[in-house]
């Protein structure tokens, strides 16, 4: 069940203008499947409410973003971030790669030596790597020429050369995210600890005031928000309250991921774990840690944890995506998200996901002067595509269930009726406005989510032309 409110202007959290245009709906016990459908249509959760911006009207375009957990690869910059945090929390040991035994090294060297001759390429090749291999082989042949068995000596020299390369490659090998996860796991829990706490847990209730203090410091120092509501009640409403229906048996639900250094709270990432993905709803941290790139570190920790989530909860499917909230082009605070490759953005028109590096980056630059960029290619038949989209939106609207108002205009009938079955004049003189709002909502959530929604409209706002 949701309470829907149409688009209205408010203060933008990115440029501080009063030109952010956003639609809201308040949710009540939203199942994980419906939540994931809403995420795939650009909705973001804050407390018990979901919001989506109007891209043609809002000041700062907010693109929904995500990364693929199963195909994520660390970059050199992210490894530096992990090393900085590891040093900061006292783990100077760092990750250690698994070493090959002497027998394994000899076997690998012999196998690579057999490939050395082929690596020289055809005799007429002028490629640089082929020329380097030929020069190397010529030097080894000269050294082997004086031996009793030149061919056997050449094979031995090739194996020695390959073994040296393997040792050097192993010594300089790039550590994986799992290597760093093991390094953090070796730390003393009394020194550094990551806690995943559900909203109803006693441990979270005991640490809420620590979270509140960290949250206030973050808002004042990082966002410099002078008009912010600083009350503890507001913090609980937007950060602690959740509308996601938990499924604890499969590990699905809302978690507060707390990062502790001794008895000092470093930061909190509020995460919603869904059917086969998770969403980082909001992250705040101690501003003194800004040099450690805390946003990147927390995202990397989530990726590491989600990659092994199915081992802890085998009842559910493996995690596929981590949703990263909105991405605003040109915003430096959100720039780290594009480095979590493969990074994807949601097309605001077709509601399809596109790769940032191969598709979105160039289109964002090309459309820098426009309100937003469309990532999907233009339809071959625009008229047919528009007709299909209109038909789909009408079907989605008819599938919505809406609560009927009472005779006096108040919501007194606890009955939800599909839009297709609404009686004529169900909302009195506001019926046309109600149908317009329901059509708008159906277009914003898509047909799959529309079939699961039961909508409450505020009649008093309908009379004013709102939602």
UniProtKB/TrEMBL annotation:
- State the Gene Ontology terms under molecular function: arginyl-tRNA--protein transferase activity
Kindly list the GO CC terms recorded for this protein: cytoplasm
- What residue stretches are annotated with the N-end aminoacyl transferase N-terminal domain? 10-80
Q: Which organism is it from?
A: Macrostomum lignano
Q: Which UniProt keywords apply?
A: Acyltransferase, Transferase
The name this protein carries in UniProt is arginyltransferase
What is the similarity comment for this entry? Answer: Belongs to the R-transferase family.
What superkingdom does the record give? Eukaryota
- What Pfam families does this protein map onto? ATE_C, ATE_N
Its Enzyme Commission number(s) read: 2.3.2.8
Q: Does the keyword Ribonucleoprotein apply?
A: no
């Amino acid at each position: 069940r949701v309470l829907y409110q149409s688009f209205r202007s408010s203060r933008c959290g990115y440029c501080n203008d009063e030109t952010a245009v956003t639609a809201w709906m308040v949710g009540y016990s939203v199942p994980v499947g419906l939540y994931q459908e809403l995420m795939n249509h650009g909705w973001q959760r804050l407390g018990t409410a979901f919001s989506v911006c109007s891209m043609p009207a809002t000041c700062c375009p907010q693109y929904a973003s995500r990364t693929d957990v199963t195909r994520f690869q660390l970059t050199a910059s992210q490894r530096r971030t992990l090393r900085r945090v590891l040093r900061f929390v006292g783990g100077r040991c760092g990750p250690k790669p698994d070493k090959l035994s002497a027998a394994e090294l000899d076997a690998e060297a012999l196998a690579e030596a057999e490939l050395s001759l082929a690596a020289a390429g055809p005799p007429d090749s002028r490629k640089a790597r082929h020329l380097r291999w030929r020069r190397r082989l010529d030097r080894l042949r000269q050294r082997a020429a004086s031996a009793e068995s030149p061919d056997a000596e050449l094979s031995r020299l090739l194996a020695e050369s390959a073994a040296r390369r393997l040792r050097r490659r192993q010594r300089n090998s790039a550590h994986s995210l799992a290597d760093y996860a093991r390094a953090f796991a070796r730390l003393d829990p009394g020194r550094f600890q990551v806690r995943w706490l559900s909203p109803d847990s006693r441990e979270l209730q005991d640490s809420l005031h620590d979270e509140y203090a960290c949250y206030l410091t973050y808002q004042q120092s990082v966002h410099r928000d002078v008009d912010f509501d600083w009350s503890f009640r507001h913090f609980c409403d937007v950060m602690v309250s959740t509308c996601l229906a938990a499924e604890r048996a499969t590990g699905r639900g809302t978690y507060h991921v707390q990062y502790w250094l001794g008895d000092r709270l470093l930061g909190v990432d509020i995460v919603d774990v869904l059917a086969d993905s998770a969403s980082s709803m909001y992250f705040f941290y101690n501003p003194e840690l800004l040099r450690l790139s805390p946003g990147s570190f927390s995202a990397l920790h989530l990726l590491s944890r989600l990659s092994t989530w199915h081992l802890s909860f085998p009842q559910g499917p493996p995690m596929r995506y981590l949703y990263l909230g909105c991405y605003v082009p040109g915003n430096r605070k959100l720039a780290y998200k594009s480095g979590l490759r493969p990074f994807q953005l949601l097309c605001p028109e077709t509601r399809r996901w596109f790769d940032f590096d191969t598709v979105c980056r160039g289109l964002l630059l090309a459309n820098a002067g426009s309100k937003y960029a469309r990532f999907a290619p233009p339809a071959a038949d625009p008229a047919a595509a528009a007709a299909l989209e209109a038909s789909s939106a009408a079907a989605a609207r008819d599938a919505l269930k809406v609560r009927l108002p009472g005779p006096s205009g108040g919501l007194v009938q606890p009955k939800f009726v599909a839009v297709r079955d609404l009686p004529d004049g169900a909302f009195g003189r506001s019926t046309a406005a109600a149908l317009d709002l329901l059509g708008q909502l159906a277009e914003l959530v898509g047909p799959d989510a529309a079939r699961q929604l039961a909508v409450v409209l505020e009649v008093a706002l309908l009379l004013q032309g709102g939602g």
